[in-house]
Amino acid sequence: KISGGSCQKPDNVRVSYGTAGFRGNASGMEYVFFRMGMLAALRSKLKEAAIGVMVTASHNPEHDNGVKLIDPQGEMLAQSWESLATALANVTNDQLIEQLKQIIDSQKIPLSNTSFKEVVALVEGIESHKKQVMAVLDGASAFGATCHDHGLLTTPQLHYILACYNGGDIKVDEEHYYQNYASAFKALLNVVSLCKLNPVTSPVTVDCANGVGAAKLTKLAERIGANIIDIVVYNDGQSGKLNENCGADYVKVQQRAPAGLNMEPFHRYASFDGDADRLIYYTLDSDCNFILLDGDKIAALFATYIRDNLKKASINLRLGIIQTAYANGNSTNFLINQQNIEIACTPTGVKYLHEKALTFDIGVYFEANGHGTVSFSLFYLNAAAFDPNKSAEERFAAKKLKLFLDIINQTVGDAMCDLLAVEAILQDKNWSVKEWYRIYTELPNRQAKVQVADRRIIETGDAERKVILPSMLQPAIDELVRKYPSGRSFVRPSGTEDVVRVYAEANT
Ligand code: G16
């Protein structure tokens, strides 16, 4: 018996750690949350550091709750532990103790180490899912771990707080996050507006998917000040349901505005997902056509801004963009052929993109769905900003780039930080959304979800761009695609929903 419901695993149920943690119908999944509490406590003992546990439905409907573990530096759980998590979640109730012993032995977890007090930081994305949170607490406490329940936070806020905590700032809290990013944004805007006679601010309307991001974005905007950024929060959770007909996933996949939003041409609109780790922008053109500025366009904006400033500062660093199969063909063409920026492609899941990004000096990674960030070291930029051998113009560009990167949450894609970063670049370039979306025109594209009896029979290769099994599927896709100029299509099983995703693009 646990306080958060029953920790008994039902028979004949199999779950998998998936693209980003366990997801599924929350009721009846308490045993998964309980076991993940235990696993977090064990990982904390091994790493001698706090481990994060996020309880969130993320981009999925509220009843599909989930749990993801976060490693000490705020990065995703190490991939080698995902299989341990899956194994632990799937053993029968009778095998649970034995499985825990196996993990302890195979990972050489020092249970007797008393020098470190293991800590599990816990956060929930949805108020109504207290039961699942309690199950995690019970699991972690079973191994004597101390738990800090931070209450409602966005996923990236937990990543940030965890990284600061393990970095030695044990008093870090939510307010620290706002102060850090509000002052970083203001510092860059100060420098940027100094160069302008009439800095212009225009409002940006943000659909927060009725999720936790609404209250958090309001707080961040207050810390920055309405005279510096004008944010209008839409879908704040007062009436609508989480991710229902709104949010980044809905807008991206449906290619339409959240329900009930009356759009005006060339106004800037943005959407978060339920736990605010994804961001996309959109607007209407003068003919009221819906224009989407998704993760690909955000990546292109960030990368070209970084590249231009590196050039102005005469700093020679290797910059790369990481995409997935979902990246629009024209975004890839634009970056490689027109901008001469290096591109890499990985399977879906920010854990893969993040890993690849670290192989560049500066890695900009974004999934088309709006999940992404930038990885970098400030070492060269700090040095260049004060280098007496550089010209004033070069030092200024280095300083600006450093201030820009201060706005970025490196630990994970963060909708709030990414929003500030987009707004800062537009201000600096004196661009409206029109100049931004015109950098390239997307190939028309569609995404669909297909329910099948067992999505696991589909296996993919080549960064999910080709189907390996069943073997007759890829030739059939190739035959269809051949009929359409610039055609491209792929299918892959989702790692967060019980569906197969289908993507297609072509020049009409
Ligand atoms: C998660 C992952 C993303 C991934 C998305 C969809 O997003 O963090 O990297 O793109 O799931 O994955 P799939 O297509 O496998 O269902 P989130 O926002 O739910 O954490």
UniProtKB/TrEMBL annotation:
<dbReference type="InterPro" id="IPR016066">
    <property type="entry name" value="A-D-PHexomutase_CS"/>
</dbReference>
<feature type="domain" description="Alpha-D-phosphohexomutase C-terminal">
    <location>
        <begin position="467"/>
        <end position="507"/>
    </location>
</feature>
<keyword id="KW-0597">Phosphoprotein</keyword>
<protein>
    <recommendedName>
        <fullName>Phosphoacetylglucosamine mutase</fullName>
        <ecNumber>5.4.2.3</ecNumber>
    </recommendedName>
</protein>
<dbReference type="InterPro" id="IPR005844">
    <property type="entry name" value="A-D-PHexomutase_a/b/a-I"/>
</dbReference>
<dbReference type="InterPro" id="IPR005843">
    <property type="entry name" value="A-D-PHexomutase_C"/>
</dbReference>
<comment type="pathway">
    <text>Nucleotide-sugar biosynthesis; UDP-N-acetyl-alpha-D-glucosamine biosynthesis; N-acetyl-alpha-D-glucosamine 1-phosphate from alpha-D-glucosamine 6-phosphate (route I): step 2/2.</text>
</comment>
<feature type="domain" description="Alpha-D-phosphohexomutase alpha/beta/alpha">
    <location>
        <begin position="45"/>
        <end position="81"/>
    </location>
</feature>
<feature type="binding site">
    <location>
        <begin position="492"/>
        <end position="496"/>
    </location>
    <ligand>
        <name>substrate</name>
    </ligand>
</feature>
<feature type="domain" description="Phosphoacetylglucosamine mutase AMG1">
    <location>
        <begin position="173"/>
        <end position="279"/>
    </location>
</feature>
<dbReference type="GO" id="GO:0006048">
    <property type="term" value="P:UDP-N-acetylglucosamine biosynthetic process"/>
</dbReference>
<dbReference type="GO" id="GO:0004610">
    <property type="term" value="F:phosphoacetylglucosamine mutase activity"/>
</dbReference>
<dbReference type="InterPro" id="IPR016055">
    <property type="entry name" value="A-D-PHexomutase_a/b/a-I/II/III"/>
</dbReference>
<keyword id="KW-0479">Metal-binding</keyword>
<feature type="active site" description="Phosphoserine intermediate">
    <location>
        <position position="58"/>
    </location>
</feature>
<comment type="similarity">
    <text>Belongs to the phosphohexose mutase family.</text>
</comment>
<dbReference type="InterPro" id="IPR036900">
    <property type="entry name" value="A-D-PHexomutase_C_sf"/>
</dbReference>
<keyword id="KW-0119">Carbohydrate metabolism</keyword>
<dbReference type="InterPro" id="IPR049022">
    <property type="entry name" value="AMG1_III"/>
</dbReference>
<feature type="binding site">
    <location>
        <position position="275"/>
    </location>
    <ligand>
        <name>Mg(2+)</name>
    </ligand>
</feature>
<dbReference type="Pfam" id="PF02878">
    <property type="entry name" value="PGM_PMM_I"/>
</dbReference>
<comment type="function">
    <text>Catalyzes the conversion of GlcNAc-6-P into GlcNAc-1-P during the synthesis of uridine diphosphate/UDP-GlcNAc, a sugar nucleotide critical to multiple glycosylation pathways including protein N- and O-glycosylation.</text>
</comment>
<keyword id="KW-0961">Cell wall biogenesis/degradation</keyword>
<keyword id="KW-0413">Isomerase</keyword>
<dbReference type="Pfam" id="PF00408">
    <property type="entry name" value="PGM_PMM_IV"/>
</dbReference>
<dbReference type="InterPro" id="IPR049023">
    <property type="entry name" value="AMG1_II"/>
</dbReference>
<feature type="binding site" description="via phosphate group">
    <location>
        <position position="58"/>
    </location>
    <ligand>
        <name>Mg(2+)</name>
    </ligand>
</feature>
<dbReference type="GO" id="GO:0005975">
    <property type="term" value="P:carbohydrate metabolic process"/>
</dbReference>
<feature type="binding site">
    <location>
        <begin position="367"/>
        <end position="369"/>
    </location>
    <ligand>
        <name>substrate</name>
    </ligand>
</feature>
<comment type="function">
    <text>Catalyzes the conversion of GlcNAc-6-P into GlcNAc-1-P during the synthesis of uridine diphosphate/UDP-GlcNAc, which is a biosynthetic precursor of chitin and also supplies the amino sugars for N-linked oligosaccharides of glycoproteins.</text>
</comment>
<feature type="binding site">
    <location>
        <position position="501"/>
    </location>
    <ligand>
        <name>substrate</name>
    </ligand>
</feature>
<feature type="binding site">
    <location>
        <position position="273"/>
    </location>
    <ligand>
        <name>Mg(2+)</name>
    </ligand>
</feature>
<keyword id="KW-0460">Magnesium</keyword>
<dbReference type="InterPro" id="IPR016657">
    <property type="entry name" value="PAGM"/>
</dbReference>
<feature type="binding site">
    <location>
        <position position="277"/>
    </location>
    <ligand>
        <name>Mg(2+)</name>
    </ligand>
</feature>
<dbReference type="GO" id="GO:0071555">
    <property type="term" value="P:cell wall organization"/>
</dbReference>
<dbReference type="Pfam" id="PF21405">
    <property type="entry name" value="AMG1_II"/>
</dbReference>
<dbReference type="GO" id="GO:0000287">
    <property type="term" value="F:magnesium ion binding"/>
</dbReference>
<dbReference type="Pfam" id="PF21404">
    <property type="entry name" value="AMG1_III"/>
</dbReference>
<feature type="domain" description="Phosphoacetylglucosamine mutase AMG1">
    <location>
        <begin position="294"/>
        <end position="431"/>
    </location>
</feature>
